[in-house]
Amino acid sequence: MQTKEQVLALIRDALVEMFELDPARVTPEARLYDDLEIDSIDAVDLLDRVKRLTGRKISAEDFRSVRTVEDLVETLHRIMSA
Q: Would the pTM of this model clear 0.85, i.e. be above it?
């Protein structure tokens, strides 16, 4: 099982690599759509990357409540801990 800090690092690395974001912008409080400009197609790509990196799938239902990087960390950590 990974810690939340490890999950955050994994997500930050994926966002920086995929969308060429400044790592300093990828904070737990950053809103995916508003602050990081991640649109719905980008979100699908991100979910695919997370699945490939972790072997765990985040369902559309689970992702529906994700608004911030921290929400994504919490959701992924919960799925990986199950």
A: yes
